[in-house]
Design a protein that fits this description.
Helices cover 37% and strands 17% of the residues. The protein is α/β, with parallel strands linked by helices. It has two domains: 133 residues, Aspartate Aminotransferase, domain 1 (Alpha-Beta Complex); 241 residues, Aspartate Aminotransferase, domain 2 (3-Layer(aba) Sandwich). The strands form five sheets. A seven-stranded mixed sheet has the order 4-10-9-8-7-5-6, sandwiched between helices. β7, α6 and β8 form a beta-alpha-beta unit. α3 crosses α8, α9 packs parallel to α12 and α10 packs across α12. The longest helix is centred in the N-terminal third of the chain and has 20 residues. It is globular and about 70 Å long. The chain starts with a helix and ends with a helix. The structure holds pyridoxal-5'-phosphate. The site of pyridoxal-5'-phosphate has 12 residues, from α4.
C-alpha cells in the first residue's frame, strides 16, 4: 500500500489553486509534476556542484562528473540495462532522431510503424523515407484501440528494414505486446532487423527490462517520470552501431585536421555540454520512483483507471476510446455533440487540467474520424476523490454545453 497523502505532500505544485479551485492535475501523459527532491537536486547542483563535466581536473568538475556518471548507472538500472548502453539525449523525440540519423539502413527500405504512434515516432522515419526512397508500412488499429496483429506478417517483406513501435499509446493507453510483435516481425523477415521501442509512456508506468524485450533501441523522457524537461534516454544494445550524425566536444580521443578518432561507448553520441543538472535530477526522480516501487505505482494507477472508467461509463453522453481496462491509466473520451476544446476549457474553470486535441497522434484521430479527444491521464499522486470531483465538473460542463 502506498501513502497517497504523504506522496502528495512531496509535490509542492499540488497545493496550488487554479481558478480559485485546488488543482486537479490529470495531464500526466504530457508531463508529470516534480517532487521536492527533484527540485532540490536542481537547486543543489547550481548552489553547490556546478561545473562542466568530463574535462576538468579541479574538484568541482570531478564531483559533477561523478554525479553525472552515477546518474547513468541509476537510469540503466531502472530499465535493466548496463550503463555503457545509456545515451543521454534531450528527450524521446531527440533520441528517435538520433537513431533515425545514425542507423545505416538499406536504400529503398520499408519501415514498419503503427497507426497509434506519436508524431515523434513517425516524422523522423518519414524524413528518412524521403531522403532514402523508403516507405512507411503501418500496423492498423482496431475499433477497441488495440493493434490489428492479424495483418502483421502481410506488412513484412524482404525490404523491411526497421520496426519502430510504441510500447504504450499516449492517446489510448493501449499496452502493445512488443516482445511478441518483435519476434513475429523478425521471424517473417527471416532474420534480424533493428527495432526501436518508444517507451515515453511505458517507462513511467511499467516495469521495463530492455534486454528481455529484445529491441535494439528503447527511448524515453525524464519529464514523464517525475524528472526535469529537456532530458531523455536512448538505450542502445550496441551504441557503437550508430553512425555519428552529430559530433563535437566530449566525444573524441584525438582530433587533427586530417582525421578524428572518437571514444567508444555512450559519450561518443553525447557531443557538447549536456543537460548536467537535468541528468542529475533525473536520477533523483528515478530514486524517488524506486523508493515507492514501479509495480506499486502501476497497481495504484490501475485502481484509479478502474474507478474513472466506471464513473465515465455512467454518463450517457461520454464515449471512451479503447473502453477497457487492459491498458495504462489513460482515458481518451469525447462528449457526444461537444468539441473536446470546449470540454477542456470548462474543466479548467474547475481547476482540472486535462489534455484536449490530437495528442500528437493525428493519424489515430483520422482512424477514428474525430478532430481530437479529451484525455485524462493519471499519476501516482492522483486520488479517487479527484476523479469524483472531475466527474461532477464534467457533468456540470455537459449541462452547459448541450
Ligand atoms: C508515446 C510518446 N512518444 C514520444 C513523445 C515525445 O516525447 P518528448 O516530447 O519528451 O520528446 C511523447 C510525448 O508525449 C509520447 O507520449
Amino acid at each position: 500500500m502506498i501513502d497517497i497523502a504523504a506522496i502528495r505532500r512531496e509535490f509542492p505544485i499540488l497545493s496550488r489553486k487554479v481558478n480559485g479551485k485546488p488543482l486537479i492535475y490529470f495531464d500526466n501523459g504530457a508531463t508529470t509534476q516534480k517532487p521536492q527532491k527533484v527540485i532540490d537536486a536542481i537547486v543543489k547542483y547550481y548552489a553547490e556542484e556546478n561545473a562542466n563535466i568530463h574535462r576538468g581536473v579541479h574538484t568541482l568538475s570531478r564531483e559533477a562528473t561523478i554525479l553525472f556518471e552515477q546518474a547513468r548507472k541509476t537510469v540503466a538500472g531502472f530499465i535493466g540495462a548496463a550503463e555503457q548502453e545509456i545515451i543521454f539525449t534531450a528527450g524521446t523525440t531527440d533520441a528517435i532522431n538520433l537513431v533515425a540519423g545514425g542507423l545505416s539502413l538499406p536504400e529503398g527500405g520499408e519501415i514498419i510503424v503503427t497507426e497509434m504512434e506519436h508524431h515523434s515516432n513517425i516524422l523522423p522515419w518519414q524524413l528518412w523515407c524521403e531522403h532514402h526512397h523508403g516507405t512507411l508500412r503501418v500496423i492498423p488499429v482496431k475499433a477497441d484501440g488495440t493493434l490489428d496483429l492479424d495483418v502483421l506478417e502481410t506488412l513484412v517483406n524482404p525490404k523491411t528494414a526497421l520496426l519502430a513501435i510504441t510500447h504504450v499509446s499516449n492517446t489510448l493507453g493501449t499496452i502493445n505486446p512488443v516482445k511478441e510483435i518483435i519476434a513475429r516481425v523478425r521471424k517473417a523477415r527471416g532474420g534480424h532487423i533493428p527495432v526501436l521501442v518508444d517507451g515515453a509512456q511505458s517507462a513511467p508506468h511499467l516495469q521495463v527490462h530492455v534486454h528481455d524485450m529484445d529491441a535494439d533501441f528503447f527511448v524515453f523522457s525524464a519529464h514523464k517520470v517525475y524528472g526535469p524537461t529537456g532530458v531523455g534516454v536512448l538505450w542502445a544494445r550496441n551504441p557503437d552501431s550508430l553512425i555519428l550524425s552529430r559530433a563535437g566536444g566530449g566525444t573524441i580521443k584525438t582530433v587533427t585536421f586530417a582525421k578524428t578518432e572518437y571514444v567508444e561507448g555512450p559519450s561518443r553520441l553525447e557531443p557538447g555540454t549536456p543537460h548536467i543538472e537535468g541528468v542529475i535530477a533525473f536520477a533523483e526522480a528515478i530514486r524517488y520512483v524506486n523508493s515507492i516501487g514501479i509495480r506499486a505505482i502501476a497497481d495504484y494507477e490501475h485502481h484509479l483507471l478502474m474507478h474513472a472508467t466506471r464513473r465515465l461509463n455512467e454518463i450517457p453522453e461520454v464515449e471512451i476510446y479503447a473502453n477497457h481496462l487492459h491498458k495504462a491509466a489513460v482515458i481518451s473520451f469525447n462528449v457526444k455533440g461537444a468539441h473536446p476544446f470546449d470540454v477542456g476549457t470548462l474543466l479548467d474553470k474547475y481547476g482540472i487540467a486535462v489534455r484536449t486535441g490530437h495528442h500528437c497522434t493525428q493519424p489515430l484521430m483520422q482512424h477514428y474520424g474525430i478532430p481530437g479527444t479529451v484525455r485524462a491521464s493519471f499519476a501516482l499522486y492522483n486520488t479517487i476523490e479527484e476523479i469524483d470531483l472531475f466527474i461532477e465538473a464534467l457533468q456540470k460542463s455537459i449541462r452547459m454545453l448541450l
